[in-house]
Amino acid sequence: MKEVTGRKWWVLVAVCLAVFMGMLDITIVNVALPEIQKSFATSFSTLQWVLNAYTLVYAMMLLPVSKLGDRFGKKQVFLIGVVIFMLGSLLSGLATNDTWLNIARGFQGIGGAAMMSLSLSIVTLAFPETQRGLALGIWSSVTGLAVSIGPLIGGALVDSLGWRAIFLINLPVAILTLIMGVVFIEKGHADADEHLDWLGMLFSILMVFGLILALIQKEMHMSYAWTDWRILSLFGLALVSLIAFIAVERHGQQPMIRLSIFRSAPFVGANIAAFTLGAGIYGGFTYLSILMQNYMNYSAFQTGLKLLWISVFTLVLGPLTGFLTNKIGSRWLISAALVFGTAGILTIDHQMQVPFAWSDLFLGFILLGISNALVNPPISTTAMGAVAKADVGMASGVLNVFRQVGISFGVVILGIAASNGYTAKLDGGLAKLATLPPVLQNPLPAAKGQLVDALHQAGAFAGEQIFASPQTKGFRGTQLFEDLHSLVFHAFENGFARACLVIAGLLAVGAVSAMVLIKPKAKEGEDHAH
């Protein structure tokens, strides 16, 4: 792309608006689910597909839209993505039942994938090497901000305008993005002679579909074992598709992905860091929100405000990371940032105790915020600088797939860790309650049985909701009620501690991988000839 003074910054504004919308819609819907459930009078498990339909289609399409951008032009496919996202948002806002909404969310995911994947390559090509670090720092800051500010914006919109507003608010932003994109983004190169690798695209879609859907099924059905046929068959589909994809790409004349990009150690290191970041910090946001809303009695809006302590650092430190990268190198910056994240989650683990208080989280949130702010820009800069210019679009798609699969993996694996720790502590505590002399156990044995059953059915993440349910009304204030209340909170503390250790382990793996694989001699921004 030709550089025109000032134009490149408007390009950055346009793609950042699109990225903000796309990433925001991954997290903003969480806080609206209770209102949507009331509106459609459907089950919560059915409504989970409002989240999962977007996530699944979004992840599946990240690689194909990157290739379509190479074939038809990044600007054209990016703008088509904005239009698809806008239409999906409109259809979601007008939905009259959950099936309509789920389909609209899937359609919206196609647009979100095009905006996210192509925005990174558009920014990379629009800026010269000397300014690329700063531009990608700003881009990454917007990405991190959108993920963490979603609950705040969602809570404000739902409280003031209703759940449909979280979708309809995208329309004016999308129109502004379209106008700016048409005016400022250079048309760029479209390779009309390049044949689309249809088999490669098909197998890439099936691979990501199988992997993400298996994780979604595990998330929605924690009782399923990893060896359950409904999980194992999807992982099998992903594995067979991966093998077929590699075979097609190795022997194709114009492959969808040049597999040689994975020979670049810095590129592999950046993708491992992106995966562990997604699994650890972004996956952890789900359970930090559950802790604050269901165990600390914060509203969705208040939870969003607290999470700002993480996201606000992206605004302050994000743009400075380009300077820091040039001074100390991506290898050290990524590793240090992930160590900050590890320290942050271990601090939360150390501080947390019943009764939970904001002071338990505050210092850890600051460390997580610093980590999130410092790590995203050098990951993007490293991945984009480790491949030839012709491969920038596909490298962007691969990086985003690793990050998104990381988020899905993190939500599942952290949920399993938290649930197992919760159940172990709960069952041990209930066994002790059961051994008390009958006169001390409870004057309402039938109610006790109902409540114990309800505790098991509700799981680790219900929190105060179970104690506010109608079946508890008859014996609130009794000793049994207080004992079980305390037991549930200590059980969640145990489960959350296990999840914290898993997050710390994931971030530590990312830090070590970056240190080992991202060599000091790999200078960001160079176009390597592979």
From TrEMBL:
| Matches recorded under CDD domains | MFS_MMR_MDR_like
* Keyword Transmembrane (UniProt): yes
Q: Where are the transmembrane segments?
A: 9-33, 45-65, 77-95, 107-127, 134-157, 163-184, 196-217, 229-248, 268-287, 307-325, 332-350, 356-376, 397-418, 496-518
What UniProt keywords are attached to this protein's entry?
A: Cell membrane, Membrane, Transmembrane, Transmembrane helix, Transport
- Record's PROSITE patterns? MFS
- Domain Major facilitator superfamily (MFS) profile span(s) in chain numbering: 11-522
**Per UniProt, what is the membrane topology?**
Multi-pass membrane protein
Classification via Pfam families:
MFS_1
Subcellular location, record wording? Cell membrane
Report which superkingdom the organism of origin falls in.
Bacteria
Q: What is its main location?
A: membrane
Coiled-coil-forming residues are: none
Q: Which family does it belong to?
A: Belongs to the major facilitator superfamily. EmrB family.
The protein in question is named MFS transporter
Source species of the chain = Lacticaseibacillus yichunensis
